[in-house]
Design goal:
By secondary structure, the chain is an alpha/beta fold. Helix content is about 25%, strand content about 20%. The protein folds into 2 domains: about 5-25 and about 35-215 and about 330-345, 3-Layer(aba) Sandwich (Rossmann fold), CATH 3.40.50.150; about 225-325, DNA Methylase, subunit A, domain 2 (DNA Methylase, Chain A, domain 2, Alpha-Beta Complex), CATH 3.90.120.10. It contains 10 helices and 13 strands. Strands 5-4-3-6-7-9-8 form a 7-stranded mixed beta sheet, sandwiched between helices. Strands 11-10-12-13 form a 4-stranded antiparallel beta sheet, with no helix packed on it. A two-stranded antiparallel ribbon has the order 1-2.
């Protein structure tokens, strides 16, 4: 292990150890014959959205992990190898991991999101500190690079201090870092207003210098293109108490509305608001639409489509609340794929 030291940073009364300095050996270019066989580990994998994007870009997954046991039903149904290992990442030893070239991780965002009340590193459930397990693995295994994804609010949390600590940690581990906020409706041709910060790191400076985030693409896919034709009655509000509160606001077919606890907001842009994990539990971000049968919420399959999951992606028979959580916590697959392709291009 290369020498490093840690410094303590106090954030809102909580002392956290941050990797502060490290001496790295000169970089070595990856051989051309290995150029299209890059191995990845899929951390905080959920239902495999990041894996799908990167495998479409030419990478190969050799390990996958998530803490949520129900994600395994969905993940293993769709991937034949590298099944999901259900375990707390804090209990995974670095020597337990297979050889890999890139670390992928959409580490838990609830601690930094508006929906999660932006507690950050202070999060009482410990979700904000899981980034440092990524740092632990990067420090010990020193892969060629990584992709990390999180909510846009990560950049501004605690006056920018949280993001600076993350940047400092990654850079002091020997990585050249580039970050950018990408919106799914602008970079993935997905009708969803979903802004996420993407962090791409390479140990090789030449690769980092050559890497560019993808260019915007024209939005041609409409919400109506992704809706199911025959939706079960259970998704409709017709005849239910909430219907009387919705009917005066939800008037146009094919347009997505957002229930905001005390009022309904029309999304005039014609796209879906950000899908969240609390959709299936009566949360305030439930997307609502009107079709020929009445007013209803989106189905789990529609949520998967609005995240860019392919039509052949299989959805298991789980409770809707579990499926809403899985796809709300997931990523926009086409955006991930676009970033992955740019990473591959930088290494050509």
């Amino acid at each position: 292990m290369l020498p490093f030291y840690r410094k303590e940073v106090e954030i809102r009364g909580v002392v956290i150890q941050v990797i502060s300095n490290i001496t790295t050996k000169p970089e070595k270019n990856i051989s051309k014959k290995n150029r299209h066989g890059f191995r990845t580990i899929d951390l905080f994998a959920g239902v495999g959205g990041i894996r799908l994007g990167f495998e479409n870009a030419g990478f190969k997954t050799v390990f996958a992990n998530d803490f949520e046991a129900q994600c395994k039903n969905t993940y293993d149904l769709n991937f034949k190898d590298s099944k999901l290992v259900v375990e707390d990442i804090r209990k995974i030893g670095v020597d337990d991991l297979p050889k890999f070239d890139f670390l992928l991780g959409g580490f838990p965002c609830q601690a930094f999101s508006i929906a999660g009340y932006r507690q950050g590193f202070d999060d009482e459930k410990g979700r904000g500190n899981l980034f440092f397990d990524i740092a632990r693995i990067l420090d010990a295994r020193k892969p060629e690079g990584f992709l990390l994804e999180n909510v846009k609010n990560l950049k501004s949390h605690d006056g920018g201090k949280t993001f600076r600590i993350i940047q400092e940690t990654l850079e002091n581990l020997g990585y050249h870092l580039k970050t950018k906020v990408l919106n799914s409706m602008e970079y993935g041709n997905i009708p969803q207003n979903r802004e996420r910060v993407y962090m791409v790191g390479f140990r090789n400076k030449d690769y980092s210098d050559k890497f560019e985030f993808p260019s915007p693409v024209k939005l041609t896919v409409k919400i109506t293109d992704l809706l199911e034709k025959n939706v079960p009655e259970k998704y409709y509000y017709n005849g239910k108490p909430l219907f009387e509160r919705l009917k005066d606001f939800v008037k146009e077919e094919g347009k997505v509305y957002q229930w905001r606890r005390q009022y309904v907001r029309e999304n005039k842009s014609g796209v879906c608001p950000t899908l969240t994990a609390n959709m299936g539990t009566g949360g305030h971000n439930v997307p609502i639409i009107k079709d020929k049968k009445g007013i209803r919420k989106l189905t789990p399959l529609e949520c998967a489509r609005i995240q860019g999951f392919p039509t052949n992606y299989k959805i298991p028979k789980l409770a809707d609340s579990a499926l809403y959580k899985q796809f709300g916590n997931s990523v926009s697959v086409p955006v991930i794929e676009a970033v992955g392709k740019q990473m591959m291009k930088a290494m050509e």
